[in-house]
Amino acid sequence: MVAGADSRLYLIFLGAPGAGKGTQTAMLSQALGIPRISSGDLFRENIKNQTPLGRQAKAYIDRGELVPDAVTVGMVIHRIAEDDCVRGALFDGFPRTIPQAEALEAALAEQGKTLGAVVDLVVDHEILLERLSGRWMCRGCGASYHLAFHPPKTEGKCDTCSAELYQREDDRADTIEHRLLVYYRQTAPLQNFYRQRGLLYQVNGEQAIEAVQEAVLRVLGVSQPAEYAGFG
Ligand code: ADP
Ligand code: ADP
Ligand code: ZN
């Protein structure tokens, strides 16, 4: 059981853009009481606040390219050192390259933390296109919605924080195709990286949102309600 070894749970969510990483990690963060660290959200936060890091990252994000490793790694490693990550963290969208994965491994080791598992959400290309082109995101909390697959209760508003929903600039058809290409080239090799370390758990991400969540909890070995208590 992945979650049993110690009371700290550092988990990576791998998967293409649109695979459901944000949706699943948001639910799991609630269930386990550990923070979700989304590199994409951290970048968007920096862009909104017009920080130097945000200005640097924006040009890459707009083109659907990866932000350089040095910038990305620094930002995420800084985040893991914060107090709320002492009992674990869910990484959403990080690492996305082998050098990022190596940097994360080193940083966790330095802080006396270990990676519990890497959950890879597997979704076919055509379905990814359908999901990304219909995605609406919350300006307040970063939650993902979909016009057809996961509509908000009130049109244009987030179910949890009531903030406005918007469509991301980089969710345009041409940028989506490019981001998926970048994923296949630069991020998919991480599957083997983690498989070799015995940490890779592949989950069928094409099922309904709740079914994917159940499958994720099953591979993590936290399907029993009683076991939630230890992590909550
Ligand atoms: P998605 O949810 O569609 O996978 P994200 O919100 O995770 O997208 O990321 C949006 C963009 O932010 C990426 O296309 C990339 O430009 C940048 N980005 C996010 N995470 C990383 C990362 N780990 N390394 C490099 N760039 C990143
Ligand atoms: P990622 O963070 O991997 O880029 P998201 O969690 O933002 O992916 O999901 C991408 C889009 O697909 C969103 O519009 C979301 O509502 C929708 N979605 C997520 N999971 C599912 C699912 N299992 N079935 C159908 N649609 C989904
Ligand atoms: Zn919200």
Across the major sheet, the strand order is 2-3-1-4-8
Question: In this structure, how is the largest beta sheet organized?
Answer: 5 strands, parallel
Q: Please tell me the overall pLDDT.
A: 93
Q: In angstroms, what is the radius of gyration?
A: 17 Å
Bound molecules: adenosine-5'-diphosphate, zinc ion
Q: Termini, distance in Å? A: 17 Å
Overview of this protein structure:
With 232 residues, the chain is α/β, with parallel strands linked by helices. It has a domain at 9-123 and 187-229: Rossmann fold. Helices cover 46% and strands 16% of the residues. The protein has helices spanning 21-32, 39-48, 52-63, 69-80, 98-110, 125-133, 173-187, 190-196, 209-220, 225-228; strands at residues 9-14, 36-38, 88-92, 115-122, 135-138, 144-146, 165-166, 200-204. The protein has a five-stranded parallel β-sheet, with helices on both faces. A three-stranded antiparallel β-sheet has the order 6-5-7. Helix 1 (21-32) packs across helix 9, helix 2 (39-48) crosses helix 3 and helix 6 (125-133) crosses helix 7 (173-187). One adenosine-5'-diphosphate (ADP) binds next to helix 2 and helix 3.
